[in-house]
Amino acid sequence: MPSVKRKTYTSTLPPNATIRGTVVKWTSRNGAKRSGTLVVKDGAKFVRYQSDTWYAQYRDAEGIVRTVATGCRDRDSAEAKLKSITKQVDKINAGIYTQLEVDSSKQLVLPIAQQIADYLENLSHQKGQGKRSRISPAHIVDVTRSLKLIVAECGFQNLRDINREVVQIWVSKQLTKTNKSTRDWSHKTINSHVSALRAFCGWAVTWRGMLKNPLLKFPMLDIGRQKKPRRAMTPDELARLLDVARLRPVAEFGREIVKLDPNGKRTAWKRLPLKYSDMAAAYERGVQKLSPEAVAELTAAGKERELIYLVLLTTGLRQNELATLKVREIEFGPKPFIQLDPENEKAGKGSTVRLRSDVAERLKIHISERQLSLNDFVLRVPDQLIRVLDRDLVAASIEKVNAKGKRLVVHSTRNTFATMLNSAGVTPRIAQEAMRHSDIRLTQNYMDSDQMDVAGAVESLPSWALANALDSSRALENARESGTERQELAHSGLHPQTLLSAEETKKPLENVNLPRVSNVGVIGFEPTTLWSQTRCASQAAPHPE
After folding, report:
1. H or E element: which one contains 83?
2. 71-108 b/e with 16+ CB inside 10 Å = b?
């Protein structure tokens, strides 16, 4: 018969125990007061005590006796839980439920932290995009951070707690900036957190017995208006950026020093920021101040930074693709190219990227000088390349954000690459292949319209149409003056009655003599036929051939 009971334990006497007769009292490690019965066995003293919570004992659907913890300190509550368990067993025996369905329902009340750990473990073994064998570790890190944050702030303890309304309230709080401590998140960042939780719920539906995904078709925030448009660099800006990248590591030590308060007792000074006009002079001052070893090291770093920008601008590689590029992926030959590793490419296809001959030669020299092996990374791309780029832009006197609100970031090198291809007259289909895009419209979006020569394209239109129109107008005027208007119009292919004089155009419509069907000539356009005439003609008997 099903029953509830407390478990009995026997242990040695605690150090702080007090004995009064057969009653033993002590304080547990967590500060709780405990009591038990004294037991003497072979001259040794022990304490026997019962558990604080009740346990339920029952026979499951397979006939096995089970003892499970109820977590209840009250006997009546424990018996109520035992009754619920026995009802489940009866429904399984009756065929209403299966054991698998019951086990799945138990998963819904497990701690959500354990469920997230299982989900991330499953996610780490899934196949990645394209030819990738596994999902990117960086993506798993982002999903872990997003899931833990949104679950903690929404107060979800298990899968049953997840509901649509709470998530919607959380999204509203992120959009409401009430104080300085509130996050200034973009819509894209908020959507990424909701997407992580929605994907987790989808996994729970498949593997944890969740009935449905509560975030299915959850309304995402519009990110179109918050997008920060990028722009491409002009040829002049490119030249300045490459110069600054090469010279700035040494020129930083050659910046001029100015005193802030020359009349004060304490000397205060600062270094002036670098300017492109003073870059060469600052470089020379830096060479004089530094040791030859330091100059050689900083010069090599400047050349490598220049090469990083040059490869990004001439290949369209993304930052992570260049950072993970290894020597074995570069093929030096008559037509050099890069064979990307699918594990490191965004699309995971293992695409082929063509290299300019001069850029390939510089890469070859760089690899030789650093004595790199086949499995070494070609270039040491900084993790915070955007910060390095921002400083280089300031030193090169290049606007980070132009008057139209378009900005320069590391990914702008791809915009510059696409724009340069377009300016060079490369067809859109070849540009799409060079950019490694699946849709040609995406390639066209990367091209900066501000650098397109629209005025030159308009000026290149043929002028014969305008010239013929002017010649015809002049001929008509001459014909009217000489009285040979009908002959000139006949030669030009226009019917006389289809053109109105300047005086007739000023008359009301009812006073204008419109051409009739009977006045159709051999030369010219046929006037519109009335419906009644067309109907009569269609009902007439056919003319014998």
Report:
1. helix 75-94
2. ebeeeeebbebbeebeebbeebeeeebeeeebeebebb
Query: Between helices 292-315 and 279-289, what is the axis angle to 10°?
Result: 140
Could you tell me where the beta strands, DSSP code E, fall in 301-415?
330-331, 337-339, 352-354
Q: How far is the C-alpha of 492 from the C-alpha of 513, rounded, in Å? A: 22
- Among residues 280, 353, 341, 348, which one has the least CA distance to residue 315? 353
* SS3 track for 123-161: HHCCCCCCCCCCCCHHHHHHHHHHHHHHHHHHCCCCHHH
Most distant CA pair in the chain: distance in Å? Answer: 147
The string over 409-448, giving b where at least 16 C-beta atoms fall within 10 Å of a residue's C-beta and e elsewhere, is bbebbbbbbbbbbbeeeeeeeebbbbbbbeeeeebeebbb
Q: In 3D, which of 95, 121, 99, 202 has the Cα closest to residue 159?
A: 202
348 close to 428: Cβ distance less than 8 angstroms: no
For the stretch 318-355, pLDDT in tens is 999 999 999 999 999 999 999 999 988 988 888 999 99
Helix 385-395 to helix 235-251 angle, to the nearest 10 degrees?
100
pLDDT tens-digit map of 258-312: 877 666 555 677 888 999 999 999 999 999 999 999 999 999 999 999 999 999 9
- The continuous run of DSSP H or E covering 203 comes out as helix 187-207
CA distance 70 to 305: 65
Q: Which residues pair with 5 in a beta bridge?
A: 55
Residues near 173 by Cβ (< 8 Å), separated by ≥ 6?
none
Rounded to 5°, angle at Cα 425 from 419 and 428: 70
CA distance 11 to 2: 28
377's CB contacts (< 8 A; 6+ apart) are 323, 324, 325, 326
48: phi > 0 → left, psi -120 to 50 → alpha, else beta; which? Answer: beta
β 269-271/23-27 pair status: unpaired
Rounded Cα distance between 174 and 123, Å, is 27
In contact, 303 and 277? CB cutoff 8 Å: no
The answer to whether 417 and 354 are in contact (CB under 8 A) is no
> What's the CA gap between 417 and 314, in Å, rounded?
6
- In this structure, how many other beta carbons lie within 10 angstroms of the beta carbon of residue 292? 8
